[in-house]
Amino acid sequence: MASVFSMIINGDIPGRFVWKDDTAVAFLTINPVTPGHVLVVPREEIDHWEQVDPAVFAHLTAVSQTIGQATRDAFDAPRMGLLIAGLEVPHLHIHVFPAHSVETFDLALAEKDPDPASLEDAATRIRAALRAAGHEEHTSD
């Protein structure tokens, strides 16, 4: 059975994508710890991060860094958080989010029912920052 992330990648479930390429996608999580919380996900279903091909992992971290820079600019964040938890969905995903304090890293404190308009606003802001940084070929609306 496909993971929920594969269903989002395949368009079976809607997602607010900010990045797409042949190896990875990035989209807003529906349970953000802060506005602008993005998940960077390989297209291939890989459960454990330590089992991913090193080249794919390097690509995922490069995309995470690019998304992090754009998100920092879009939200004027003092720091950017990066986390691999892997317990919520059995499909490798990297959390990238504006970090204002160490509490930001507690996924248990994620917003359970965010306003869809705030998620769409965050996606729009991140896409605009990515385009401004020259990554328009990977952004999508």
Name the CATH class: Alpha Beta
Going by helix content, strand content and strand pairing, the class is alpha+beta
Number of domains: 1
Helix content: 25-40%
Query: Going by CATH, what is the homologous superfamily?
Result: HIT-like
User: What do we call the CATH topology?
Assistant: HIT family, subunit A
Number of helices: 3
Content of β-strand: 15-25%
Q: Major beta sheet, specifics? A: 5 strands, antiparallel
What is the spatial order of strands in the main beta sheet? Answer: 1-2-3-5-4
Distance between the termini: 28 Å
Average pLDDT, all residues: 94
Order of helices and strands: HEEEHEEH
Overall geometric form:
globular
**Strand segment tally:** 5
Tell me what the structure shows.
The radius of gyration is 14 Å and the shape is globular. The protein is 32% helix and 18% strand. The mean pLDDT is 94. The chain has helices at residues 4-9, 54-75, 116-132; strands at 17-20, 24-28, 38-42, 79-83, 94-99. The protein has a five-stranded antiparallel beta sheet. The protein has one domain (4-136): 2-Layer Sandwich (HIT family, subunit A). By secondary structure, the chain is α+β, with helices and mostly antiparallel strands. Helix 2 packs across helix 3.
Search tags:
141 residues; HIT family, subunit A; 3 helices; 5 strands
What's this model, at a glance?
This protein has helices spanning 4-9, 54-75, 116-132, and strands at residues 17-20, 24-28, 38-42, 79-83, 94-99. The protein has 141 residues and is α+β, with helices and mostly antiparallel strands.
